[in-house]
Task: inverse folding
């Protein structure tokens, strides 16, 4: 499994066979292999594992894969080098998936852009406002200050994709997209602090995923 910013690529080992789409899993496994082995991607991939807090009647049970391993609170404490045990609710248990990793996505994106530039790709940095569409064919994009034409246009706008399509008068089924927004808090870290926490596992509770940064964040009852 790969966590990329707020997105997750789920591979076969992290999913129950009855619940996954085979085409999606094949794509995810190819992507995971590239992040692990192929330059420049592999320079920005960190295999950390993740730990899920799953209760007896939790919806998070669907996230538990066939190779997830039940661990004790003492084992989690040893993994993160803490001095306190996590606060679990009644019936909650800790499940470890060691196949999970995360990506420094902003740095990886910049590295890929640099490699593309070396191959002759012209890079334009603009705020795209709409797609240029004629007779059902996308010819490029409109930006704040210009129009950029291309033979192929790839939309990678994440949760802003529906709005971009709407502003471009591109019709899609109402249930075609499922978009979720996740509020996060950030804090500045120096290089020593980054090295200290970068290998810590990702913690997943009922409220979502979080990086295990210091005891004060990890041991909130619910993040």
Result:
């Amino acid at each position: 499994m790969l966590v990329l910013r707020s997105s997750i690529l789920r591979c076969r080992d992290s999913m129950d066979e009855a619940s996954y789409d085979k085409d999606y899993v094949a794509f995810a496994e190819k992507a995971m292999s590239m992040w692990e082995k192929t330059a420049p991607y592999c320079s920005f991939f960190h295999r950390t594992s993740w730990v899920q807090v799953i209760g007896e009647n939790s919806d998070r049970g669907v996230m538990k894969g066939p190779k997830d391993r039940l661990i004790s609170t003492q084992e989690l404490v040893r993994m993160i080098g803490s001095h306190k045990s996590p606060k679990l609710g009644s019936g909650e248990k800790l499940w470890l998936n060691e196949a999970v990793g995360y990506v420094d996505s902003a740095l990886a994106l910049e590295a890929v852009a640099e490699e593309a530039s070396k191959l002759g790709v012209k890079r334009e940095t603009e705020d795209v406002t709409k797609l240029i569409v004629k007779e059902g064919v996308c010819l490029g994009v409109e930006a704040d200050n210009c129009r950029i034409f291309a033979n192929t246009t790839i939309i990678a706008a994440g949760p802003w994709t529906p709005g971009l399509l709407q502003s471009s008068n591109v019709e899609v089924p109402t249930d075609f997209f499922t978009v979720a927004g996740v509020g996060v808090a950030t804090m500045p870290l120096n290089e020593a602090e980054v090295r200290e926490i970068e290998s810590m596992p990702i913690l997943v509770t009922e409220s979502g995923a979080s990086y295990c940064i210091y005891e004060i964040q990890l041991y909130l009852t619910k993040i």
Notes: Confidence is low (pLDDT under 50) at residues 1-6, 211-223. Residues 54 and 93 are 5 Å apart (CA to CA). The first helix runs from residue 22 to 37. The radius of gyration is 21 Å.
